[in-house]
Amino acid sequence: MSVTDSDGLTFRQDYFSDPAAWSALVSLLDDTFGIDIDPLHELGGPDPTSMPFGWFTDEGQLAANLSAFAMPFVLNGRLINAAAFQSGAVRPPWRGRGLYRDVTGKALAWCEARDFEAVILYTDKPALYEPYGFRSLPLHKYVGAAPMSEGATTSRPLQPRDAEDLALLQGLLRNREPVRRRSLSPAVPQCSSSTRSSIPTCA
Fold first, then answer.
1. Rounded-to-integer distance, Cα 160 and Cα 34, Å
2. CATH numbers and ranges of domains, the chain
């Protein structure tokens, strides 16, 4: 899907299968946050439930983006069909033009059309999302002693761009056991109803 606006930017969604568009997202997040997500391609690719929303220049540069994806969780013993947002950013030359407001609205509409019960995001700028019905909730951290290992063990950082480390990570991902099978009631934030729509939202 693509639409061109009056500034010559083109809106696109669901573009992760386009290598050039994916590279544009990698560049945007690296330039904005110093985060390199490109190794995801070697670790199974982006979450298959992801739906990106972005405005591109004629040269293929990504000016603004926000991605939604499915993030179900258990609350009080009930499975909640929730979505979450990530990879939200706007390049400085295009800030103040309403692009982020636009992609946020499009992402929320996409979530509502798919009957998600809640939308979750983690941010240090909660006021940016309050007009859409998001409500800030406290986060809790649980700290304890690390479990004792049996026998002598060592640890080291894993580098996804190293061939041996990449093969190790790929094997671990293939054989991992989903957390939901090991825990029936994880601690999760509670949600409140959105003032924008019937979707409860939490942040």
1. 16
2. 2-137+180-202 (3.40.630.30)
In sequence order, the 6+-apart residues with CB closer than 8 A to the CB of 91 are 28, 31, 32, 61, 62, 63, 64
DSSP 27-69: HHHHHHH----GGGGGGT-S-TT-EEEEEE-TTS-EEEEEEEE
State the pTM of this model: 0.73
pLDDT tens across the length of the chain (203 residues): 555 554 789 999 999 999 999 999 999 999 999 999 988 877 778 889 999 999 999 999 999 999 999 999 988 899 999 999 999 999 999 999 999 999 999 999 999 999 999 999 988 888 888 998 899 988 888 898 877 777 666 778 888 778 888 888 888 878 877 665 655 444 444 443 343 333 444 44
